[in-house]
Amino acid sequence: MDFIKKHYEKVLLGIVLAGLAAAVVFLMIKIPSEQQELQDKANNLLSPKVKLLTNLDLTMPEAALKRITTPAVVDFGPPNKLFNPMKWQRAADQRLIRVDSGNIGPHAVAITKLTPLYLILSLNTVTTNDAGVARYRIAVEKQASANVRERARAEKYGGIGEKNETFKIEAAYGPTDNPTNVVLILNDTGEKASISKDAPFKRIDGYLADLKYPPEGKTWAGRRVGSTITINNEDHKIVAINKDEVILSSPSDKKTTIKYNAAAAP
Questions:
Q1: To bridge 76 with a disulfide, which of 64, 83, 118, 137 should be the other Cys (CB 3.0-4.6 Å)?
Q2: Does the pLDDT of residue 103 top 80, yes or no?
Q3: How much is the pLDDT for 7?
Q4: Partners of 126 in the beta sheet?
Q5: Is the pTM of this model over 0.90?
């Protein structure tokens, strides 16, 4: 203790010097570390490491572009009638009918009756000459013909093997002056038709149509193919009449098929 008391200044100075030496050693170690850290930070700032870009996910923008190219359709039809309310029209009987394709226009035309039109061939008389050769008087009725004069009953004369604009006489069976039947070959189809005085040949070649259009209270009787009916101030031509339907053609050549409901017809 006496030594410390006598030399405490030297002891303190030694401690300070030791501390200073330790500090110098610490600084010699710390300074290079700090310099390296600063250098690394500078390098990172000046030459940063850039990550490669990955493929972009364009699903959402592509979907948005697709929606833009598709026009939006706003339907204010049934049951919403805000901007396009349902139109109604007063019929000839004063009742209100909804204006749509089923209630107005050619689809609203109804068939009330279809009448068959026949080709009728009848054996009227048979005459023979002095040589015993028979000549046959055959009545022809073309009810469906477009030519009005051909619709009336007309008589054709001919013998076996002779041909006219409607048929050819192929054969006759039975007595010469009173055959049981005469066989004809029809020019249009090539079919054979057997006729006698009591049994004429009949074939349906077309139809007459009776039509009605309730919205305007119109009716048309006995209309043929080629006839014209007026619906809502527009002419429609009958282009075909079959056993269960009528086909109409508008000025724009749009076809409308009307089915015949025999049970609902008056």
A1: 83
A2: no
A3: 63
A4: 136
A5: no
